[in-house]
Specification:
Elements (H helix, E strand, L loop, with lengths): L1 E6 L7 H8 L5 E4 L8 E5 L2 E5 L12 E4 L4 E2 L1 H14 L6 E4 L3 E2 L2 H14 L11 H10 L5 H4 L2 H21 L7 H15 L3 E2 L1 H10 L4 E4 L23 H6 L10 E7 L2 E3 L12 H9 L12 E3 L1 E2 H11 L3 E5 L10 E9 L2 E2 L7 H4 L3 E7 L17 H14 L3 E5 L7 E3 L2 H5 L1
Parallel strand pairs: 1-10, 1-11, 2-5, 2-10, 5-7, 6-8, 7-9, 11-15, 14-16, 15-19
Antiparallel strand pairs: 3-4, 12-13, 16-17, 16-18, 19-20
Bound molecules: guanosine-5'-diphosphate, 6-O-phosphoryl inosine monophosphate and magnesium ion.
């Protein structure tokens, strides 16, 4: 059984927590897109782990974690993350990095900052990890892949050629690229540390799927940050949607049996770009404080707003969700009446779906329905019936409005603060 876990909104839906929870029964956990722009938090055995590149399944020693071809991998960040994770938990699962994954190098990070500066008031608010420039190189066919990176002779030649070509690009910003010797000397050290992990990830994965092993694909970012389907240009440079799991791993669509869409019980977004249900008032601030909504990767305050079912319906179809995972229900406690956007209106007309263009996304008026809120601490609940009646009604409302059953509910960051409603939708 191969299953994908996807962010249904704008990222930070608690995918990391859910992947960790589900992957105790997985033999393989695979990151298929993005890089260290992701920040996936797992709270396990009394410790908090923040994963940026390693799949969140790595805490299960019997599970193999794969960094697949669709990723862009920053070696400096990966080496640090491996060290930090081992310092907290010495025994990790095996890690395999695809030979085809692309490498993020210092010039990508410099260009990310230069390009953001040049955008002025139209900044995307990127994570400044060099993600856009690394994917640009891949599309332009000048990227350096893992197999080349860990071969010292090849890396030397490729790096020299790329830096020569980058001279022209940097000169447009009145800058020069990083010096070859500086980059090479630092990064060949990382290559030595990473080499043992680089292997035939695609072959291993295809063999695992053919043998019927349990494979979990871990999405990063979220549906509305998808390069094609999100609020372009305020998006990331890869494909977080479920289809991205096929492109990024070498597993075809007919081999995927389930897609869990992770959504918060409300909405958040980091960075700029359209956000129809954003709350710029005290309620937005209350959600940010109650939910501690500050970025895992950059520490930036997250923009907060009401749940947007109009957007989630698009997400459900774009990803073929088989089940929903509704997280952070506890954060809405004590907020009073809850609003949920069920449709959009644009220029006085009701839309059948979502507008695909940012200039319209930015102008839609959400049509809200009001639901009764709830009070009190719910972190100790272990079954649906332990939750306030109003919370149960909220969940039923979402299921009906999105048209997808709720498979899992999350009521706190811990592994035990998870309620499985439909085990059949979690592992078949
Ligand atoms: P991801 O990027 O989708 O993996 O999400 P992040 O890790 O960036 O952000 C989710 C945050 O919510 C983390 O700090 C989690 O520890 C925390 N978290 C996960 N589930 C819950 C929940 O149900 N309730 C609360 N209050 N926090 C949660
Ligand atoms: P996880 O996996 C939330 C956002 C950035 C910015 C835009 C482009 O933790 O959910 P990039 O650096 O990718 O070029 O930035 O995408 N972004 C995320 N927002 N969660 C993430 O990852 C994100 N990864 C990128 O804030 O708006
Ligand atoms: Mg995150």
């Amino acid at each position: 059984m191969t299953q994908v876990i996807v962010g249904a909104q704008w990222g930070d839906e608690a995918k990391g927590k859910i992947v960790d929870f589900v992957s105790d029964r997985a033999e393989f956990v695979v990151r298929y897109s993005g890089g260290n722009n992701a920040g996936h938090t797992v709270v396990a055995n009394g410790k908090e782990f923040k994963f940026h590149l390693l799949p969140a399944g790595v805490l299960h020693p019997g599970t193999t974690s794969i960094l697949a071809a669709g990723m862009v991998v920053c070696p400096r960040s990966l080496v640090r993350e491996l060290d930090e994770t081992r310092a907290k938990q010495p025994e990790l699962g095996k890690v395999v990095i695809s030979r085809a994954a692309h490498v993020v190098l210092p010039y990508h990070m410099s260009l990310d900052a230069l390009e953001e500066d040049a955008r002025g008031k139209d900044k995307i608010g990127t994570t400044s990890r060099g993600i856009g420039p690394a994917y640009t190189d891949k599309v332009q066919r000048s990227g350096i892949r893992m197999a080349e990176f860990v071969d010292e002779g090849l890396f030397r030649a490729r790096l020299q050629a790329v830096l020569d070509a980058k001279e022209r690009l940097f000169s447009l910003f009145g800058q020069t690229p990083p010096k070859f010797d500086d980059v090479f000397d630092e990064y060949r050290g990382y290559a030595d540390q990473i080499r043992p992990y680089v292997g035939d990830a695609e072959q291993k994965l295809q063999d695992a799927v053919a043998a019927g092993k349990r494979v979990l694909m871990e999405g990063a970012q979220g549906t509305f940050l998808d390069l094609d389907l999100g609020t372009y240009p305020f998006v990331t440079s890869s494909h977080p949607v479920a289809g991205g799991a096929c492109i990024g791993t070498g597993i075809g669509p007919r081999d995927i049996q389930g897609v869990l869409g992770v959504c918060k019980a409300y909405s958040t977004r980091v960075g700029t770009g359209p956000f129809p249900t954003e709350l710029l008032d005290d309620t937005g601030e209350q959600i940010r404080q109650q939910g501690n909504e500050f970025g895992t990767t950059t520490g930036r305050p997250r923009r907060c707003g009401w749940l947007d079912v109009a957007a989630l319906r698009f997400s459900a179809r774009a990803n073929s969700f088989s089940g929903l995972v509704i997280t952070r229900l506890d954060v809405l406690s004590g907020l009073g009446a809850l609003q949920v956007a069920t449709r959009y209106r644009l220029d006085g007309k009701e839309l059948a779906g979502v507008p695909m263009c940012s200039h319209e996304w930015g102008r839609v008026e959400p049509v809200y329905e009001t639901l009764v809120g709830w009070e009190g601490e719910m972190g100790a609940a272990r079954a649906l019936s332990d939750l306030p009646r109003e919370t149960q009604d909220y969940v039923r409302f979402i299921e009906e409005a999105v048209g997808v059953p709720a498979a899992i509910l999350s009521i706190g960051p811990g592994r035990e603060q998870t309620i499985v409603l439909r085990p059949d939708l979690v592992w078949g």
